[in-house]
Amino acid sequence: MRKLIVSVAVGTTVLVGTGAPAQAAPSLPQPAIKAKAVALSLNGKTVWNEGADTKRPIASLTKVMTAIVVLRQETNLDRTLKIKKKYTTYGDKWNASEAGLVVGDRVKVRDLLYGAMLESGADATAALADAYGPGYKNFVAKMNATAKRLGLKKTRYANFDGLPYPSQTSTYSTAAEQVKLARYALRFPTIEKAAATKKITIKTAKNRTYTFENTNRLLGKYPGISGIKTGYTNGAGYCFMFAAKRGKRTQIGVILGSPTEKRRFYDAKRMLDWGFSG
User: Fold this and answer.
1) 63 has catalytic annotation
2) Active-site residue among 34, 36, 63, 180?
3) Would you state the pLDDT for residue 28?
4) How far from chain centre, in Å, is Cα 70?
5) Is 41 assigned a catalytic role?
6) Torsion angles phi and psi, residue 84, rounded to 5
7) Residues 36, 41, 108, 120: which is the catalytic one?
8) CATH class of the 15-276 domain in this structure
9) Sequence spans of domains, the chain
10) DSSP sequence for 96-154
């Protein structure tokens, strides 16, 4: 899988995690987290909020809203879409992550959602946006309308996948609003299932097979983890929207602007450990 690389460098990293937790939070001290912003909820209550209300680029966390917009419209997930060349070349300018779709193939909507959520495939996302806009511009308008309907006042989508155009910061949100979006997204069984899937092989109408592997490296390694989405651009840094459940405790968290791929997973694990420690 190709990583998304653009020219603008990541900003200076700061330590976060020193704020006072809400009453529902564990009494243990919060570990120091290296990121621009973090937010964590425990059973729907905010227990960690550092820089979480500041607007920041969110990279491929954008695709969570893409999946929501599709699923709000489509009930027949076995519907197939024809893969066009403009989908497979869409992310080439930015060397974007792709699901490896082949021009002329016909792929189920359900499988395209897996390609977008697991592999963060720009080709799969482009196919969905074009079909359910219809057209890219109309689809982005639906994303912003949905954000408004959900009360995400500091969220704006300039595109449907989080690529850095027209600028590095054209698509933005806050850690707090992305936690709220994640909670809503997990109401959709398809998103919940895809987010928790480590690897899947699908077969298309033209008898071609694709294997999609989740970019969430905590799946299968952290007890109770169930997604949700990773993202990266130079401007956004390494981002991670995650959820985990143990017993009666459900946590949803977001990390924006982590300095490295490994650090975002390391810090997410420490945040979840802290939340479950009570």
Assistant:
1) yes
2) 63
3) 84
4) 15
5) no
6) -100, 160
7) 120
8) alpha beta
9) 15-276
10) -------TT-EEEHHHHHHHHHTS--HHHHHHHHHHHTTSHHHHHHHHHHHHHHTT-TT
